[in-house]
Design goal:
Layout (H helix, E strand, L loop, with lengths): L3 H16 L5 H17 L4 H17 L8 H16 L15 E6 L6 H15 L3 E5 L7 H9 L5 E2 L6 H11 L5 E5 L7 H15 L3 E7 L6 H11 L3 E6 L7 H10 L4 E5 L7 E3 L2 H8 L5 H11 L11 H14 L1 H8 L4 H4 L3 H12 L3 H5 L7 H10 L3 H20 L1 H10 L3
Parallel strand pairs: 1-4, 1-5, 2-3, 2-4, 5-6, 6-7
Antiparallel strand pairs: 7-8
The structure holds guanosine-5'-diphosphate (GDP) and magnesium ion.
Length: 425
């Protein structure tokens, strides 16, 4: 997983917060401190971290939770939204126009991953748009075009001219590929320093007249990405960033947040050395995956839905309970929550396996028992356990859950939620 250590630290911050009895001032501060520590370790700028924590705190304290949603869930949602914001929020993706040659220029310091990215983008665009070609204009690194060919094979044509200047290669390539929808231009990136790189960039822009210029940044530079992205945005107005090597760097969080703080969109991320190891950057999805959970808004919606008490009038027998459990199993939000949020499982305590067991137990009851569970004791428990392939202890546990659920039905859905969440197996 990309940014594994940041992801697991943030998840355990969430788990710890959920594990506290309530989200009071102390546990909120502790939660925020955990989050701060995780972000600082990922090289996110101190000022950004402080701003983010201030916003999380004031939002958690001021935002109202919708009915049936706990403050802890609201805190998770707020953390999620603030992290999405920190890495750029919703951004438009590259706008590739049909019926023309869209030129994409790649620039960046030596070793940042330009050539690899050129090949990756070649394949990525090829799968989505018709004709894609690559121009290899790096005349400094010997056989740099072969590096691209080695990655794309025959799938994408690669143009270069031995012993020519980059200007000439680019101009001829653009002409040769004039019927192509997308032309990706790899450059040399001789300069290590920012100033030199920006001068070089201006030259390339003049020669290639690109539709998009992408600055390729190695994630391991962490928050130092800010000044490069900032300088870049002044030279290349229609620019964006590709952050590479996110698979291998602990500082990726710093790099992503820094680029976003510089006001430059991140269009792609590189997540490995292979040609398919590239992903369009989507802040929502990235943070969801980082935290190890699906879309939070959707999650909360589904939790609300499943926690709605069944429509019951005056009674709550095993038929009602069965219906409720089957509904829960069908929706599977609890399991969704458990399996996707590492560390939360222990606190939630109810999983799909347990629900299936409960269902099996109820199905081993006679109609009379289902209508009137209070008659179930002694030999009946023994028979039901045998019939459902469970133990008498399991049956007693189901009966206890049922009676708690029954009283919860009177107390409303909040109670039911607490019951199901806090139920220790
Ligand atoms: P350039 O000098 O900017 O053209 O950089 P290259 O494309 O030659 O890449 C430099 C090194 O970084 C190569 O060994 C690549 O395989 C490696 N690299 C590039 N992108 C990634 C990435 O996303 N993840 C990993 N792990 N390695 C990468
Ligand atoms: Mg190169």
């Amino acid at each position: 997983m990309v940014l594994e250590s940041l992801g697991s630290k943030l998840s355990s911050a969430i788990s710890r917060m959920i594990g506290r009895p309530t989200l009071d001032e102390i546990s909120l501060n502790e939660f925020i401190r955990d989050v701060q520590r995780s972000l600082l370790e990922a090289d996110v700028n101190v000022k950004l971290v402080l701003e983010l924590s201030r916003r999380i705190k004031s939002r958690v304290l001021s935002e109202k939770a919708p009915p049936g949603v706990s403050r802890k869930e609201i805190a998770i949602k707020i953390l999620y939204e603030e992290l999405v914001n920190m890495v750029g929020g919703k951004r438009p993706s590259l706008d590739i126009k049909q019926g023309k040659q869209n030129r994409i220029l790649l620039v960046g310091t030596e070793g940042s991953g330009k050539t690899t990215t050129a090949a990756k983008l070649g394949i990525w665009f090829k799968k989505r748009y018709g004709k894609v070609a690559i121009i290899s204009s790096d005349t400094i690194r010997p056989a740099s075009h072969q590096q691209i060919v080695g990655l794309v094979g025959e799938a994408v044509p690669v143009f270069w001219i031995d012993g020519e200047k980059p200007e000439k290669i680019i101009a001829e390539g653009i002409n040769k590929f004039k019927d192509y929808n997308i032309v990706i231009i790899d450059t040399a990136g001789r300069h290590k320093d920012e100033k030199g790189l920006m001068e070089e960039l201006k030259e390339y822009i003049k020669i290639a007249d690109p539709d998009y210029t992408l600055l390729v940044l190695d994630a391991s530079i962490g928050q130092a990405a800010f000044s490069q992205a900032k300088a870049f945005s002044e030279v290349a107005p229609l620019g964006g960033v590709v952050v590479t090597k996110l698979d291998g760097s602990a500082k990726g969080g710093g790099a992503l947040s820094a680029v976003s703080a510089a006001g430059v969109p991140i269009y792609f991320i590189g997540v490995g050395e292979k040609v398919d190891d590239i992903q369009p950057f989507d802040a929502d999805r990235f943070i969801s995956r980082l935290l190890g959970m699906g879309d939070i808004a959707e999650l909360i919606e589904r939790i609300e839905e499943v926690m709605k008490p069944p429509q019951i009038k005056g009674k709550f027998d095993m038929y009602d309970f069965l219906e409720y459990l089957e509904g829960m199993k069908k929706l599977g939000p609890i399991d969704h929550l458990i399996s996707l949020m590492p560390g939360v499982r222990a606190q939630v305590g109810v999983d799909e396996r347990k629900i299936s067991q409960w269902i099996a137990i109820i199905k081993s009851m006679t109609e009379e028992e289902r209508r009137n569970p209070s008659i179930i004791s002694g030999t009946r428990i023994e028979r039901i356990a045998r019939g459902s392939g469970t133990t008498q202890r399991d049956v007693r546990s189901l009966l206890k859950t049922y009676s708690m659920a029954k009283s919860a039905m009177i107390g409303g859905d909040r109670m039911m939620r607490r019951l199901l969440k806090g139920y220790k197996l």
